[in-house]
Design goal:
It holds the Pfam family TNP-like_RNaseH_N. InterPro entries: THAP2 (IPR026521), THAP_Znf (IPR006612), THAP_Znf_sf (IPR038441), TNP-like_RNaseH_N (IPR048365). It comes from Scomber scombrus (Atlantic mackerel). With 273 residues, this protein is an alpha+beta fold. 41% of the residues lie in helices and 11% in strands. The protein is built from 6 helices and 6 strands. A two-stranded antiparallel ribbon has the order 1-2. A hairpin with a 6-residue loop joins strand 5 and strand 6. The two termini are 51 Å apart.
């Protein structure tokens, strides 16, 4: 996927900073006629857009973007219109050569000279654009920046709401598991039956959990747990050996075994050799 905007002299790339600023990237349309209009609007000689070419949102008007959802798509049929072209890329304007147009140009020249003299005697304050954090002089630009900020706030609110919902579901799952741990002992998870099997009703005080953790990838998966009052090192050794055999049979290569410093674990390691 392209990492930069295809517009001439545009330095915007797919970065976390640009995403935080509300800058989005949009692929060229699949429709040939609309794609041709996009290519003409770019004014890049010899440029032909590919299926993966993109433009950033700074080359579109605010009305061209649909910021009502978390994903910001373009509205149908929009054409990029905001560019910073060099002088040789700007379209020349043809002058009119009629007598009326010449007289009009002369009057405009005189008016511009008068305006220049007035401006010289009464200089106007210039806007300060040296600092990017300064407010824009145009109310339209200020409103556009405000709309972008509000859209970003709405997006962050939705992300926060989804994260809180995921956290609530995880807490409910853990709470249910802790309830099972308090109620039963010798509870063995059987993957073939997808259920719990228990032969005693005494309360379990310890849990033996087997979990596989990926080294090259960020993942982990519990494969079995055993609830009991006590477990001998011999039984732990048998269960660990069985778990390693099952993983090997499924093509999973185990490079190390990690456990806490419980006395029964140390005795089990001594038996394994």
């Amino acid at each position: 996927m392209p990492e930069h905007c295809a517009a001439y002299c545009c330095q915007n790339r797919r970065t976390v900073q640009n995403r935080a600023r509300g800058i989005t990237f949009h692929k060229f349309p699949k429709d040939r006629d609309v794609r041709k209009k996009w290519e003409v609007a770019l004014r890049r000689e010899g440029f032909t857009a590919s299926d993966s070419s993109v433009l950033c949102s700074e080359h579109f008007k605010q009305d061209d973007l649909d910021r009502t959802g978390q994903i910001v798509p373009l509205r149908d049929g929009v054409i990029p219109s905001i560019f910073s072209f060099l002088v040789h890329l700007q379209r020349p304007e043809k002058g009119r050569t009629t007598c009326t147009s010449r007289r009009s140009e002369e009057s405009l020249s005189v008016a511009s000279q008068d305006a220049s003299n007035t401006a010289t005697s009464h200089p106007q304050p210039q806007p300060n654009d040296d600092h990017g954090y300064a407010l824009p002089a145009s109310p339209t630009s200020l409103k556009a920046r405000l709309n972008e900020a509000l859209a970003r706030v709405e997006s962050l609110e939705r992300e926060k709401k989804n994260a809180m919902a995921r956290e609530k579901r995880a807490k409910t799952t853990v709470k249910s598991l802790l309830g099972d741990l308090r109620e039963k002992k010798n509870v063995l998870m059987k993957s073939s039956k997808r259920g719990l099997n228990s032969t005693q009703t005494d309360v379990a005080t310890e849990a033996l959990v087997f979990m596989v953790v990926g080294i090259q990838g960020h993942w982990k998966a519990p494969i079995a747990y055993y609830l009991m009052n006590s477990l001998s090192p011999e039984t732990q050794r048998v269960l660990l050996s069985h778990a390693l055999e099952e993983l090997h049979a499924r093509g999973i290569r185990v490079v190390s075994v990690t456990m806490d410093g419980h006395a029964s674990n140390i005795r089990m390691c001594n038996q394994l050799g």
